Amino acid sequence: MALRHFSRSYPVLGGAYYLAGRAASDLKRRLAEQECPAELTRRVAIAAYEAEMNICIHAIAGEVEAVVEGEEIRLVANDRGPGIPDLARALAPGFSTAPEKARALGFGAGLGFTNMQRCADEFTLCSQVGRGTRVELVFVARPEPAESEKGGRQ
Amino acid sequence: MRLAEIVDALGLQVRTGQESLSREVTGGCVSDLLSYTMANARAGNIWITIQVHPNIVGVADLLDLAGVVVAGGQEPEKGTLEKASEQGVAILTTGETAFGVAGRIYGLGVR
To answer: Which ipTM score applies to this complex?
Structure first.
């Protein structure tokens, strides 16, 4: 199946908890409109939401870029933030450096990267301490979408 | 089971999303961690939480949940109810604990 092309960049502001989630909502709507399979739409929406929340919780600002082309959906989340000193530790389920405010709202449970990895077919994380973090996610439309949720390669 | 039947059986207050009451409830999730709900709740599920901020509407909308029960007598924020009205997400409130709500919905046969 081929998806109609579109690309979009969504700005995300650090600390603006109540605004985060707009990229995920917009993407979900656009994918649903063009009859993207429900399971693929769900995977993209969940990962986009987690990427947005990570920027919101940890960075000063950033953006989530989405490119839909053919059978592939690519998300790139870039932020200007503190960076991650230990990537392996950051990827461990349950590990989090989120502030108390985020945790009180039910964020920062250390499941963001775990959810992104489970949802995406490809997951790449790069970070530079003091500069920022970049997450690249690729989702592929397939005839058996249920299988792909097991995916996530680093 | 339809959402309306759960509302009636538990005496939940329907704060928003009246139009969703005819939806079929396909299961449930109890969590106050948004990422956990993101990972585990499926379309048509009912979500029981004590979180009251507008992000619960975002999560419910993204996952296409049947509705959100805000338990424990917690009052949803004004912004939460506004956003839920706009998006047609059912927000239901009750003084009963999350444990009690989950137990009763499970008892009604929702699995």
So the answer is: 0.90
